[in-house]
């Protein structure tokens, strides 16, 4: 079985893509990388194809036609990785808002500490966000409060997009459709993991807003998260979650490597 793969969705990330790929491959722990590109007109996919000659067998590219959404990009990437036998699968942004050095800590939280899912959390120890305007910080933080209130899920950062999953987690939850495509996708994935009884932990990180490229956040995506959470909770009453063999729990935050 192959060990670890990072799924990185992209749309117009030409300013960041080479730097993020090189940074990941410079880490002391080895990770393969899959770029899922949604037809970026700026040449993102072309840059990745050029780099594949340098990182043969470890840098992969999945090209899709058009901008199909963050959630579907991750799902396509996860299915690609599961079909090839990877044991640990990661979500990460391409814009350095997630520090690649923290990949090692997320990996250790699952591979050494026994978590099924490790979430890179901005809010497990205060508010660790850099370069966001105060309005966006408050919106993100209270979105977490709202999600915990509606769902009962004990996750401080339910909209986080920096995550490590064991392969058996994704094999389980992807048996049923994941409906949402934006920030609600991140909530739905964690909610499904929790409902199935997988162990989750939050690893404290510092989130730094992008300095290059354009944010993909929109009002439509935020509304999907607000109203989708209620719909998701109601629908969960009519679904039967068969728990895995592991004992369900949320374990303590991981402090160090």
From TrEMBL:
Keyword vocabulary terms for this entry: Glycosyltransferase, Transferase
TM spans (from-to): none
Highest taxon listed in the record's lineage: Bacteria
Signal peptide: none
Domain Glycosyltransferase 2-like: 6-173
InterPro entries: DPM1-like, Glyco_trans_2-like, Nucleotide-diphossugar_trans
Keyword Membrane in record: no
Protein family (similarity comment): Belongs to the glycosyltransferase 2 family.
Name of this chain's protein: Polyprenol monophosphomannose synthase
Native species: Nibrella viscosa
């Amino acid at each position: 079985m192959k060990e670890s793969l990072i799924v990185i969705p992209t749309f117009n990330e030409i300013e960041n893509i080479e730097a993020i790929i090189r940074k990941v491959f410079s880490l002391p722990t080895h990770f393969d990388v899959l770029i899922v590109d949604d037809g970026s007109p700026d040449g993102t996919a072309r840059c990745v194809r050029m780099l594949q000659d340098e990182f043969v067998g470890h840098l992969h590219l999945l090209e899709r036609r058009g901008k199909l959404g963050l959630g579907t990009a991750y799902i396509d990437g996860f299915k690609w990785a599961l079909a090839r036998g990877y044991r640990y699968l990661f979500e990460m942004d391409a814009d350095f808002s997630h520090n690649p050095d923290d990949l090692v800590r997320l990996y250790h939280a699952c591979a050494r500490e026994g978590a099924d899912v490790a979430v890179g959390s901005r809010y497990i120890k205060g508010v660790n966000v850099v370069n966001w305007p105060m309005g966006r910080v408050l919106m993100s933080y209270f979105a977490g409060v709202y999600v915990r209130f509606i769902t009962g899920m004990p996750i401080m950062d339910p909209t986080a997009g920096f995550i490590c999953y064991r392969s058996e987690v994704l094999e389980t939850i992807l048996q049923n459709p994941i409906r949402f495509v934006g920030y609600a996708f991140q909530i739905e994935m964690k909610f499904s993991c929790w409902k199935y009884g997988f162990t989750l932990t939050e690893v404290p990180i510092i989130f730094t807003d992008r300095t290059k490229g354009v944010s993909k956040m929109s009002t439509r995506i935020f509304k999907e998260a607000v109203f989708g959470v209620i719909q998701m909770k109601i629908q969960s009453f009519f679904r039967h979650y068969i728990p895995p063999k592991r004992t369900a729990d949320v374990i303590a935050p991981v402090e160090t490597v």
